[in-house]
Design a protein that fits this description.
Number of strands: 29
Distance between the termini: 84 Å
Number of helices: 35
Strand order of the largest sheet: 3-2-1-4-5-7-6
Low-confidence stretches: 21-66, 341-352, 668-681, 774-779
Shape: elongated
Helix content: 25-40%
Radius of gyration: 39 Å
Largest sheet: 7 strands, mixed
Structural class: alpha/beta
């Protein structure tokens, strides 16, 4: 009988509930008064003997100790009565857990041993052990049953090979229930079961008048027990509010089931079974009521014996009144230990919104018994129904709807802008409905559908081959890492998604549907498990991490939100070469070089990385697992050490950017608010393009030629970019295609940049690499430039750039997009200081003197380009090593001196000088406000005499280096040397770098880029006029940044020359 159902009463016993006449103590019929309870003892005990005979045993009377219960025969008899009626409730079963052929069973707190004896008879092939703190069990027991004196609250000494653990009626006797369940978990075999049975001490009533009476003795009874338990530290609330279930889940159990029964006290129920159970329960209560109360109330709460007797008498009288319709609830929670012993707590697993600042559980060694399989049964691959897919992805509905709407809007603009390019793309419509989703899962109950999943990320191995046995599926990665991924599931209703196991690799159509769905799939995953199967720890590394690093990382003395050793005077990794070697090995994993892997890493909400460990124990396989935050910390520790290879440098950058703890904090806040979109939506098209095309992609290995495989790899890269951007579009699938649209990176870049313009991405008009090639003989280059890693400028904002208006933009409709038509402004005549001006002479003198003093070098005095561009721009001398660069640097410094301190201060603030160093720069440069006293510097006999002046000079040189780095070095892909130019217009002066082609220089500023949020971008187009007159041809020679101390949003008011719908070609 479920606890949610009302028990119907027997009118012949209870009478009319509305009748206020009290029933006397001598109750007729089948009810149980105080007197009739005792008179019924003999007949009910006889029934127990009869019931026990059904299980092949005679009843054995014995004494017991029940912690706070008395240890006399009366209470032993009552306890056995409870065993009898609980067995009746379970339809003559001794347990609810679905155990089969158990070999070892433990009965914790066995009491009289009655359950252990019965279960030993039921399973003659099992070894049954009952434990208790008192030796009161019978001497005559089945040969497969034994009893031990043991305290369940101490550390258990059993082997970890139990099939079933049974715990019953320990309420009020356990200090730490969580520890009890954890010990049970630890000592069960994988797949073993726990069953915990406890009563709720509160007496309830099916009579509303009694149940709602807050002064009724039923209420007082439970309140005094709760108070006694709280005082003694042994709760009487374990069976309330789902506490048992919660603690069992937290211990790591899965397949958790909670059954509650309402058990009437007395024979007032109409249902025949419940009437009989109620009679048994009435006898149990009658024999136990005073024993229940005496110790908690007298010994713990300090009541007098008379006070205890009074409460017991009141309680006995209320229970004996059939109009009270009294009942208790019994709670049974049974659960299974997962198949792998290292499953973490269910609370940790189900609470996927991890705390990135909690360092206590971010790295650990784990192990599995050998041997491990390298295949899984095909029956473990479950195809998800349409209903199941929609349920699993339900939290993504809003995000996918927004993406679809965004895709429809972008594609509509693209059809207007470039119809031919638009034919390459289509909107993701019903992407989850069309996707064939399979999950790997060894769930024991085939009727329980998957509710979530963990996704696996790994490098495809060239050695992988599908199993020739149709009943088996080959594991595409290391067997131990696959077990680690399976162990990351929170429950058996959580599956594992592995692309090579879950996508039909022989079906191009299925793959074409699956690829655009990867963004939603990895973003929606409860966790992405990254298997670095080409990395293996050494024993030395294991020892260092286990003994030294992990305890320091999780050290509670380090304040929350801080990470150990990041600010050590001597870099921690430099002092610990074992860790440095370990981190280098991770960074050089092939996984960090693969485009799909990088894509999966960026989309994941939470990461868990695994690497293999050497075999230390002959019967165990081990792996080391760690979170993305732990890996970010390792990258942060290594930040002061040089990369030993390009692969390490790129991997370290990816880790630092993608797993940045600040990014994770923002993500945690979004997830707590229910927002499951990804920050990848904030990524610029250009940034996504350059990052993705720098990585490797293999293409479909079944394609006939290398050319087709390379083109297919480019198509994959384009799909990855669209997934990263979350723009609701996918590459249109064309079966039997020659993949001509993907024949080279430049063609892909061109189509993606056209798409980016339609999407309103301003960076598409501000890319600064080399011009994309075109096949036309007259104009060999399109106006588009390749994207670069520096296109977002210095210290870019973490926020997405606002959408660019595209209404006034037209493109050449041909596939190569030779020209673009748009409105804009031409900067006025230049006002740059001449080479023989005073400021130019001063600038040359400053650079010469500063170089002689050894200023502008790296940390150890070297001149190295790797230090020059940032982050503080102190090492400026690398700009002067070539004569052409030296001339540009001196001229740039002259422009800075000419424009003055206020221009410098406002430009540094507006255009992206790194905020971390900006206050120091402005403070030191304040001397420039009143002019640099070069005379005082030259007359000084030492650095100390003119230190203040030189600090100011150093700040100005740092600022000049920053202008050069972002205005010259990072703004055009040409080998030509551009020079700084100053343009004045009204109260505003801007500086930019360009070359004068056929006069000029001519700088074009597109009106659609007149937004201060774009101030870090290369918004100036350097033009060359090929013909004169009103119809002259304008050709772009590159892009340049416009450094301005003032807003350019109202550029029309500055005096710049407006040009309408001018066509600009590529060079």
């Amino acid at each position: 009988m479920s606890a949610e159902n009302t028990i119907e009463f027997d009118p012949s016993v209870v009478g009319n509930l509305d009748d206020d006449v009290e029933i006397s103590g001598d109750i007729s019929g089948d009810s149980l008064s105080t007197g009739s309870l005792r008179e019924s003892t003999a007949s009910i005990t006889s029934s127990i003997y009869e019931y026990r005979t059904l299980h092949g045993r005679s009843y054995q009377a014995s004494k017991t100790t029940e912690y706070w219960f008395p240890t006399d025969d009366r209470h032993v008899s009552g306890n056995d009565v409870a065993h009898a009626y609980l067995t009746m409730l379970m339809k003559n079963n001794l347990h609810l857990a679905p155990i089969k052929n158990p070999k070892k069973i433990l009965d914790v707190g066995t009491g009289s041993g009655i359950w252990a004896i019965d279960v030993a008879d039921q399973y003659p092939g099992a070894e049954v052990i009952g434990t208790d703190i008192s030796p009161v069990q019978p001497l005559w027991v089945p040969p497969n049953c034994s009893f031990q004196i043991d305290d369940a609250q101490l550390d258990w000494t059993f082997r970890e090979d139990l099939d079933f653990i049974y715990i019953r009626n320990l309420i009020g006797g356990i200090d730490d229930w969580a520890k009890l369940y954890r010990q049970a978990f630890a000592h069960l075999k994988p797949g073993g079961w726990l069953e915990s049975v406890e009563i709720d001490i509160e007496t309830l009533s099916e009579n509303p008048r009694v149940q709602n009476d807050q002064n009724h003795v039923f209420k007082k009874w439970c309140q005094v027990f709760w108070a006694a338990g709280d005082k003694a530290g042994r709760t009487f609330r374990i069976a309330r509010d789902g506490t048992m279930q919660k603690l069992i889940e937290e211990a790591g159990f899965t397949d958790v089931h909670h059954v509650r029964w309402k058990v009437p006290i007395g024979g007032w129920a109409q249902d025949p079974l419940l009437k009989q159970v109620g009679l048994y329960n009435g006898l149990y209560i009658d024999q136990s009521l005073d024993g229940f109360a005496l110790f908690p109330l007298a010994q713990i709460l300090g009541w007098s014996f008379a006070e205890v007797e009074t409460l017991v008498a009141d309680m006995r009288k209320a229970i004996a009144d059939p109009k009270s319709l009294p009942l208790f609830t019994w709670n049974v929670v049974y659960a299974r230990k997962p198949e792998h012993q290292n499953f973490k707590s269910r609370r940790e697993k189900m609470d996927r919104i991890e705390d990135p600042l909690d360092r206590t559980s971010q790295a650990a060694f784990q192990q599995w018994p050998l041997p491990l399989p390298n295949t899984v049964p095909a029956s473990m691959i479950h195809v998800q129904s349409l209903e199941a897919k929609r349920r699993i992805f339900s939290r993504m509905n809003n995000a996918m709807t927004l993406e679809r709407e965004r895709g429809e809007a972008i594609l509509s603009r693209l059809r207007t802008l470039s119809p031919q390019t638009a034919e390459m793309f289509e909107v993701k419509v019903d992407q989850i409905d069309e996707f064939t989703m399979r999950l790997v899962n060894n769930r024991p109950d085939e009727t329980a559908p998957e509710e979530s999943y963990v996704a696996l990320s790994y490098c495809w191995s060239q050695d992988y081959s599908a199993s020739t046995n149709p009943s088996e599926i080959a594991i595409p990665t290391s067997d131990v890492l696959f077990q680690a991924a399976m162990a990351e599931r929170a429950a058996f209703t959580e599956g594992l998604w592995v692309d090579q196991m879950c996508i039909d690799q022989t079906s191009e159509e299925e793959k074409s549907i699956a690829i655009p769905t990867m963004a939603a799939l990895y973003r929606n995953a409860a966790r992405v498990v990254v298997c670095l199967h080409d990395v293996e720890m050494t024993e030395e590394e294991m020892l260092f991490l286990g003994r030294d690093l992990l305890p320091e990382y999780a050290n509670p003395a380090v304040p929350r939100g801080e990470f150990p050793h990041l600010n050590d005077p001597q870099p921690y990794m430099a002092r610990n070469p074992v860790l440095w070697g370990f981190f280098k090995k991770i960074c050089e994993s092939r996984w960090f070089t693969r485009a799909w892997c990088s894509h999966e890493m960026r989309l994941a909400q939470w990461h868990r990385f695994y690497i293999k460990c050497p075999v230390v124990f002959p019967d165990k396989a081990m792996a080391f697992g760690f979170t993305g935050q732990f890996l970010w910390w390792l990258a942060a520790l290594s930040s002061t050490l040089p990369s030993l290879s390009d692969a390490m440098m790129k991997a370290r950058q990816t880790i630092a950017q993608t797993l940045d703890v600040r990014h994770r904090i923002r993500q945690t806040m979004r997830l707590h608010s229910g927002e499951y979109s990804s920050e990848s939506n904030d990524t610029s098209y250009a940034v996504a393009m350059i990052e993705t095309f720098e990585l490797n992609a293999g293409g479909n290995p079944t394609l006939a030629t290398e050319t087709l495989r390379n083109r297919d790899a480019n198509r994959d890269r384009m799909s990855i970019i669209l997934n990263l951007l979350g723009n609701g579009l996918k590459v249109k699938y064309h079966p039997d295609s020659d993949l001509e649209d993907f024949s080279g990176p430049d063609k892909c870049f061109r189509n993606l940049l056209v798409l980016a313009i339609a999407a309103g991405d301003p960076v598409a008009l501000c890319t600064t690499g080399k011009s994309l090639g075109a096949a036309d003989e007259s104009l060999s280059q399109t106006w588009f430039c390749r994207p670069t890693n520096t296109d977002l400028g210095s210290a870019p904002s973490k926020e997405a750039l606002p959408e660019m208006p595209t209404g006034g933009i037209q493109l050449d409709p041909s596939p190569v997009a030779y020209w673009i038509r748009l409105d804009g402004y031409l900067l006025p005549t230049t006002d740059t200081p001449t080479e023989d001006s005073t400021v130019a002479t001063t600038a040359q003198l400053i650079v010469t003197l500063a170089t002689q003093l050894g200023m502008g070098t790296g940390p150890t005095g070297e001149i190295n380009e790797s230090y020059g561009p940032g982050p503080d721009y102190r090492a400026w001398q690398y700009q002067t090593t070539r004569p052409e660069n030296l001339a540009c640097f001196v001229q740039t410094l002259a422009c800075v001196l000419y424009l003055g301190h206020e221009w410098m201060e406002n430009t540094a603030t507006r255009c992206g000088f790194p905020p971390r160093f900006l206050p120091e720069l402005l403070s030191n440069a304040a001397i420039h406000r009143d002019g640099v006293n070069l005379h005082r510097i030259m007359q000084s006999s030492s650095w100390e005499d003119a230190q203040q002046d030189w600090q100011g000079i150093s700040a100005i040189l740092r600022f000049t280096n920053w202008l050069m780095a972002w205005g010259h070095n990072c703004t055009h892909g040409l080998t030509e040397n551009w020079m700084p130019h100053v343009f004045l217009a009204g109260d505003n002066a801007v500086l930019t770098f360009a070359k004068a082609y056929n006069g000029g220089p001519y700088i074009f500023f597109p009106e659609c880029l007149a937004n201060d949020a774009y101030s870090r971008l290369a918004r100036g187009w350097v033009l060359q006029m090929l013909e004169t007159g009103p119809d002259r041809i304008l050709v772009t020679r590159g892009k340049t940044r416009i450094f301005s101390p003032m807003s350019l949003e109202n550029v029309a008011e500055t005096g710049w020359v407006f040009v309408s719908q001018k066509i600009i070609y590529g060079w």
